[in-house]
Each structure stands twice: as C-alpha cells, then as structure tokens.
# Entry
Amino acid sequence: MKQWIGRWLIGVAVIHTVFGVVVFGKQLLGIVQRGVFDTVGADPMTGAVVWFLLFGVVLFICGQAVSRLEASSPAALPKGMGWSLLALGVLGVVLMPASGFWLVFPPAIALLVKRGGAKPALA
# Structure
C-alpha cells in the first residue's frame, strides 16, 4: 500500500499555515510590531490567529510522525488515530462547514479501513 497518509497531513498543515499567514497577515504584522513576546493579551482575534497557526504546526508534527510510522511499519499506525481524526473532522465540519476540515476525512478513513492497524496499548 502506498505511504500517503502522513504526506497528506503534512500537505494540509502547510496549506493551512500558508493560508493563515496570507489571510491573517495584518494580525501577524501587529504581533511582530509589538515585539512578539506577550502580544496576544486579551485580544480574541489575535489569540484565534495564533491558535490557527499553531494548529498547523501541530498537524505538521503529527504528519511527520505518521509518515515515519508508515515508512517503518505501516501496521503500527493506530486505528485510534483514525477515529480521532474522524471525530475532529466531523466536529469541525459541523461547526464550520465552509472550512478545510473536509480534508481530514481521507486520511481518517484510510486509517480506519487499513488492515493490520495497531491496537491501543493498555497502561
């Protein structure tokens, strides 16, 4: 099976982050002009922009991890990750139908239908 799930997540993360920089450039410039440190404060728009961009970074990190697992042991990809991505996608689409959350469904479904997925380990 082709190893595409991690790359897909990385691609979505890059698109997400570039979109954020383009659309929220004014807010990001304000952060830089104020010296970056402690510049979000109580401004909800600036906070939303920061979280938007940080979500892209976290998705990129997850994509790297998935990509590494796909390359070393495709069976090691946990089905729980598929369920989590599916839940995230459903919630995101319900809250914001006109969004990129639809892009989470292909890797989520692929993780769920993939044969030999790793079972969650009990602590």
In short: The chain has five helices and no strands. The CA atoms of residues 28 and 54 lie 13 Å apart. The chain has a mean pLDDT of 89.
